């Protein structure tokens, strides 16, 4: 399995002329997985050898602005590059609880109507992931009639046995989220490649005894 990582931004708090806010891309078999989407991520993508249209999954570590402020604009740009197609697979977005509301409200208030289908899978944090005074319970956001207009997706809870959140699994790898401690609840993402049986040349082995 071929994996290639491109750092689009490694800056903290705000972008600078020479250093973008947090964002990196993992390229895997023709797909691009984006991790964090700080302000200026689109510009950094244009400067790179990557194509934004290849992004199929987005992972957000936490809800500080320098990690998410670029996301609504990126979705709008991807939408402009997309023709309406009901059969098109949605972009999967993974991040802390509250991300669905942030995206829906941002796009709703800016009168943006992205043609690109997307789903938001929210990770429910635990209170020990940040200082007690910083913890906010976002479980009630947009859980009334407005929820019907918000993008679809799952709400994922911690698996106590694995001490992690199972995000996705296919024939080649498993992706999990793990809790991190920060000023606000944060998550790290682990991509674990599954064991692959090797290929043996039986005839050659027999000839060698």
From TrEMBL:
GO terms for MF: 3'-tRNA processing endoribonuclease activity; metal ion binding
InterPro entries the record matches: RibonucZ/Hydroxyglut_hydro, RNase_Z/BN
Keyword Ribosomal protein: no
SUPFAM superfamilies: Metallo-hydrolase/oxidoreductase
Any one Gene Ontology cellular component term annotated for this protein: nucleus
Pfam families: Anti-Pycsar_Apyc1
Alphabetically ordered keywords of this record: Endonuclease, Hydrolase, Metal-binding, Nuclease, tRNA processing, Zinc
Cofactor (UniProt): Zn(2+)
Assembly notes: Homodimer.
Protein name as annotated: RNZ1 protein
